[in-house]
Amino acid sequence: MERNQNGSMYLKTLGLDPENQEAPIAFVESEKRMDGLFYRRNHFPYPEVDSDLLDIGGLTERNLRLTVAELKELPARTVTVVLKCAGNKRSLFSKKTFGEQWGKGALSLGTWTGVPLRSLLEKAGLKDGVQEIVFNGHDEGMQPGFDKTECYGRSLPLEKAIHPDTIVAYAYNGERIPECHGAPLRLIVPGWYAMASVKWLRTIQASADHFEGPFQTDDYVYYPHEDSDEDAEPVRQLRVNSTIQQPLDMAKAEKGEQIVKGIAWTGIGHIEKVEVSVDSGCTWEAAELEDGETEGVDYGWVPWSFKWHAEKAGIYKIFSRAKDSEGRVQPGEACWNRKGYGYNAIDRVKLKVLK
């Protein structure tokens, strides 16, 4: 449980050095504010950031050095986004993988405000031949397998970098970004797993080459084979997914009306349908989407609910599956990969209805 004795919600700690904590997703309501309950994913200890400068350069007509105050003077864009660790639900793979054993709470929802990255790149002036935009954060350190200290770095293909909703954010839910979530500046890449949304952003570099940093070419790659790198693919867009928030797994209830509720999200398009089964997937019925038509939701999650009547005592296996506007549906089994990324199998809980 993610509630203390006073009934207050708290983060579930998976690691302290560096700090990695899950959100109490079963108890989070559908509102966009998750202040204090936003999950935490770190590769290194928190950096001590003593500068609010952002350097932009590389294959550009001019180098830029901008302060947060200067960024705030530029036209802003606000996006509401699900940020989700690529390892969310890793612990649910039947064949276990190494890494933080995240449950269902390595995701959160928030509203971010900042400057479209496209505007900054136009201001710098991209030269011919730019293929990727590289981002580096202030956080750095050593990890197993590293032969030197590395800062956290990622790149985006130019097409994604210049998307109007890819922003350099300076505010979260209308206030300064908390230090633990990337202040003073954080890249926000809607629709992609959150490893792309580089925290404590310090440099942006235009490049004609493919970025080869360890968090790009080793981590955050789908390796479908245990002993081979064959068929490897980069982790990018969020897979369509849903989570049952209530009832809790292994909960008990009296006979009568039951309410199943949860959230669903996707990386492209929008959530079109959520279905629920209370008989181990033999039959399915449509859940009610809280926001009705979801076409305007874009990068947020969609709350859903389903009412049913439990006439008999027994153990019920309750499933949920989401479908998005691109025709993607949650599969019965997740695609195993040796780093445990992208789990999106049909969600499952058990409910015991008493006599």
Overview of this structure, please?
By secondary structure, the protein is mainly β. It folds into two domains: 12-219, Alpha-Beta Complex (Sulfite Oxidase, Chain A, domain 2), CATH 3.90.420; 241-353, Immunoglobulin-like, CATH 2.60.40.650. It is 6% helix and 38% strand. It is built from four helices and 23 strands. The strands form six sheets. A five-stranded mixed sheet has the order 4-3-12-7-8. Strands 5, 6, 9, 10 and 11 form a five-stranded antiparallel sheet that branches. The chain has a five-stranded mixed sheet with strand order 16-23-22-18-19, with no helix packed on it. A hairpin with an 8-residue loop joins strand 7 (132-141) and strand 8. The longest helix has 8 residues, at 117-124.
